[in-house]
Amino acid sequence: MREKYGIDAPGVVRTFAALGVVLTVVSGFVYALANAWWAYVIATVLLLTALTLLTQSLWMVYSSLVGKRRVWERALADLPLRGDERVIEVGPGRGAVLVTAARRIPSGRLAGVDIWRPQDQSGNGREALLANARAAGVADRVDAHDGDMRQLPFPDNDFDLALASLAIHNLPPADRAGAVTELARVVRPGGHIVILDFEATAGYADALRAAGASDVRVSGLHWSMHPPTRVVTAEASRPSRTAS
């Protein structure tokens, strides 16, 4: 059995593709019937718009199937991992990032927490995540939980590493800082938080700093994904040293 991770934001991809095809057909009709310069201009604009939409839909498919995992492989490679960490990912969907992390952390234990919305990823569901974990040979170390990233069902300091990939932006803007604070809460002092998203990353960084995290960094844009993304990394707060 092969791993099958689906497409992120499938409704958006379908809409872009459908509109691109329709506008291509319409522009062809306008070109065929044009008998004035302005008609050719309209046809050209329609065709360019169609090509833009089709390009975006193909870019999003590439982003889901290839680009996202490449960005995460680099992000995880940059962390000082031992290989036996406890890892949590919020919004793992069908598990592309969680399985990538499991391969990077061969003796670790990983948990995915999601509400499994179909509009976020095609075929989204906890069983799809577990099926991909089995196909990748890491199912014995991966658990799937129903839950909300704003109220994680875990105690403080329970994980060494927390991940979020294209997940937090799905929350109402007023709830995003709380979700980031939850990630920081469940990570032990000295552990790490890594968040990938295409919007609100500066706000995530501010929320991590407010939660006491250190070494908070926001990467440049990663153009292998559409929309282009940034990676926010931080180290969870350590207890302050007091003089004896």
Automatic annotation (TrEMBL):
EC numbers, comma separated: 2.1.1.-
Q: Which organism is it from?
A: Paractinoplanes globisporus
User: What is the name attached to this protein's record?
Assistant: Class I SAM-dependent methyltransferase
- The segment(s) forming the Methyltransferase type domain are 89-195
Keyword annotations from UniProtKB, A to Z: Membrane, Methyltransferase, Transferase, Transmembrane, Transmembrane helix
Instruction: Kindly give the Pfam families that the UniProt entry links to this protein.
Output: Methyltransf_11 (PF08241)
Q: What class of enzyme is it?
A: transferase
Instruction: State which residue ranges cross the membrane.
Output: 12-31, 37-62
A molecular-function term among this protein's GO annotations: methyltransferase activity
Gene Ontology terms describing biological process: methylation
